[in-house]
Amino acid sequence: MIISSSIYGQLTGRVEYKEEGVTFNIPTNWVGQEVEQVFIMGSQQESGLIALITHPAKNLKELQDTMHLGLKEGGVTLSLNNNLKKLSNTMVEGMYEGVIDNQKVKGNAVGLLNSYGEGVVVFSLINPDLFSNRTLQIGREVANSVSFYAPQLSNNPSNGLNAAQVTKDLGGNKLIYSESYYSNTPGGGGYERSKEINLCPNGAFTYYGSSYLNFTDPNFDPYRKNGQSHGTWKFIDQNGSVYLNLNYRNGSKENLLVRYKDDKTFLDGGRYYLGDVTCY
User: Fold this and answer.
1) 52, 261, 230, 173: CA torsion to nearest 10
2) CB of 32 within 8 A of CB of 111?
3) Is the CB of residue 112 less than 8 Å from the CB of residue 143?
4) Which of 72, 81, 94, 266 sits at a 20 to 30 Å CA gap from 111?
5) What beta strand segments (E) does the chain contain?
6) What does the pLDDT look like over 60-118, one tens digit per residue?
């Protein structure tokens, strides 16, 4: 869904993703980091949360249609609560309300078109009781700082990885992801994400967390009760990169980009730890 690149840790100032062809500013006194495929910004001095996600829209109508849909993924539900406003031929703004991990939020979103590829939507969100013009201002500030250019593709995007090697490294393991951020300002917001993917030696998998099946707890998994997996897995080589290919029982398919950095494993930008696999 979102900006996918290789940064791991908190950043300040100007951020650039050469392979995606996009740059943007992190506001003063704010820090940012990539959480899976979402770029999140927070501050210890100001309340609120800023999130950058990508979208595939190629024209203004497609962008408007996309923003009308809102956002629903895992513990995030955001719905448009007013008419969209056209800011320019490449920018649209709307007001949103919803919840993030059971916390109510309110704010705006500015969608931007990118003539070179995927565009970006900038969400600026805060506890409804703390909502003010500052919430709108800082979201627009980030949106106005976004600049697109022709992507500068890496000569070796997978760092020499191939599907056979990654299968040997990761197959037969549990992949565990956990990430959280909370501002210490009142109503500052935050997030929590946890996932686990069991890659069973027989080619079956189970996925708990924000997946297509959206089972967060094995105890409430109907497939598990019937001794079934969620589908089959394999690592594939595609366009010079390696992906974890998940084929779900319900017909859905998912490809997660695999990267190694400093002996750490990343899927779609999120760091995963290896654990003992749980299969049945």
Assistant:
1) -150
2) no
3) yes
4) 266
5) 14-17, 22-25, 31-35, 38-42, 49-55, 71-73, 76-80, 85-88, 91-100, 103-112, 119-126, 147-148, 173-182, 190-199, 204-208, 231-238, 241-248, 253-261, 264-267, 270-276
6) 999 999 899 888 876 788 999 988 999 999 999 999 999 987 889 999 999 999 998 88
| Strand 147-148 to 31-35 pairing | unpaired
DSSP states of 55-99: E---SHHHHHHHHHH-EEETTEEEEE-S--EEEETTEEEEEEEEE
On whether the pTM is more than 0.70, the answer is no
Average pLDDT, the chain: 81
Dihedrals φ, ψ of 89, to 5°?
A: -70, -10
Question: 137 or 154: which carries more pLDDT confidence?
Answer: 137
Q: How far is CA 130 from CA 126, 143, 181, 185, in A?
A: 7, 21, 19, 11
Residue found under tokens 């609560």: 81
The first and second tokens of residue 76, run together, are 């995030």
The domain limits of the chain are 14-148, 163-276
Q: Which residue has the tokens 């749980």?
A: 278
* CB 232 within 8 Å of CB 247: yes
CA dist 17 to 8, 30, 111, 147, 151, Å? Answer: 13, 19, 18, 11, 8
CATH 3.30.70.141 fits 14-148, yes or no: no
Q: Which two tokens stand for residue 37?
A: 């495929």
